[in-house]
Design brief:
Family: Belongs to the Fur family.
Helix content: 40-55%
Shape: flat
Mean pLDDT: 87
Number of helices: 6
Keywords: DNA-binding, Repressor, Transcription, Transcription regulation, Zinc
Protein name: Transcriptional repressor
Distance between the termini: 39 Å
Radius of gyration: 17 Å
Low-confidence stretches: none
Strand content: 15-25%
Largest sheet: 3 strands, mixed
Number of strands: 5
């Protein structure tokens, strides 16, 4: 996914459309998630953006993330490190997660959304969204584990 200023403006416009105020903190957190794409925890976001806004609190980060998740702009990812990670999700994609180091990669392949259509056809549900996670060993951990075996 290519990130542009219009991506950020589209996300902010969406929040305005659903009646949410665009506070400086909300904008900063949303921009961080859109630009970084690093699947951070709330603590990582807080530590990274407090340099830009020394008045922001960890509680504000948590509350903003909760609001963004509730309004379907951000998703939570349960990673092997047992912490909640967050991801901007306006463009559907799935995740591949390393079971050894916890690294999370985005895969932008929209063919997986056909599963939603199939679920609708088989159940009659009106599908709002879906999340898909695939687990395995990343290339770095594969190399590391092969070195340990020798």
């Amino acid at each position: 996914m290519t990130v542009t200023n219009s991506t950020i403006e589209d996300a902010l416009d969406y929040l305005r459309t659903i009646g949410l105020r665009i506070t400086p903190q909300r904008k900063l957190i949303l921009q961080y998630l859109i630009l970084k794409r690093n699947h951070p925890t709330a603590e990582i976001i807080f530590n990274d953006i407090k340099q830009q806004d020394s008045t922001i609190s960890l509680a504000t980060v948590y509350n903003t993330l909760e609001l963004l998740v509730k309004n379907n702009l951000v998703i939570e990812i349960a990673a092997p490190d047992e912490k909640q990670h967050f991801d901007y999700f306006a463009h559907p994609h799935y995740h591949v997660i390393c079971t050894n180091c916890g690294k999370i990669e985005d895969v932008f392949d929209y063919s997986f959304t056909t599963v939603e259509d199939d679920a609708h056809q088989k159940t009659g549900y009106k599908i709002s969204h879906s999340l898909m996670e695939i687990y395995g060993l990343c290339p770095d951990c594969q190399i590391l584990l092969n070195i340990k075996k020798n």
